[in-house]
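Problem 12. The chain below contains 343 residues. Write out its predicted structure in token notation.
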Amino acid sequence: MSTDIDPGATRTALDLVTAAWRAQCVYAAVKLRLPDLVSAGHTRAPDLARAAGADEDAVRRLLRLLVRLGVFEVRDGGGYGTTAVGEQLRDGPGSLRDLCLLYGEEFYQAWGQAGETFRTGRPGFEEAYGQTFDSYLRDDADAAQRFQRAMQAQANGLSFDAIAEEIDFGADRHVVDIAGGSGRLLSTVLRAAPEARGTLLDLEHMLPVARAHLERTVGADRAAVVAGNMFTDRLPADADTYLLSRVLGDWPDADCVRLLRKVREAMAEHSRLVVIELVVQEDHDGLLAPLWDLHLMVVNGGRQRTLGEYRALAARSGLSVERLVPLPAEVTALVLSPQAGEA
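Solution.
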């Protein structure tokens, strides 16, 4: 190792090592509801600490850092205000509050076992909680709903609206969202397909948030919410479009092929399947796809795949990748169609 000191490299290394501290400080502020309290008028540290039920010295020191991170700002007269970033962390529709809590609690604990994950391949979540992430959500209804709200917020951040701009759904009459989660994607597609009805299939404990969202955005008459297991229950047949958003990354190849074959069996010859994932591009400098690849490994043993790997999964399932649609935040929509002669 060279004894020459490179200040720039040292600072970069320190920023990497301490990155989790920043994330946990943001989490602590959200847990204490500081963005909400500041927006409600508790703009000075003593008042803010009292309203949060927190230690005044600790809150003052936390705010000092969060101002430098751009979450809060010091206003004229010495009070604090939320920045545009801080506004994203307030409680409310579409906010990142639940996402921050999920990442600061369950996912942070899982990543605390990352060394064990990379040594053994076993998900860190299972090491931390003694059960799989799916079983954890089944056992804890509050956590399941928080997860759904977090994924809905993440969908906003991933610009699902761009899907309807890049893919034409205008002629669709039936759209099926498999493991549709919060309902955010299905509602986006249905708004772009005014003559279509939708069906969202997911496990029972995942449905309350989706049902409420779809009723609020497109109406219960246009969207059916169905409890079911995508691997074992019958999928609606002959839909125009099937959606699989951020699903395949959670499963090993054999399960992906099993699911894709099941979708192929439900499809008509005119049907298409839209798969939405972060596709890993080896010659690309984007960070989200490789980061999310490791995150999936730590949480549930999943993985993000390359385009070649998705093509191979499709071919094994009687499908072919007909089109790639780049979306914001390194997301890609893969449009798949039935292979000729396959059923």
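Discussion. The mean pLDDT is 93. Students who got a different answer should revisit the alignment rule from Section 12.3.
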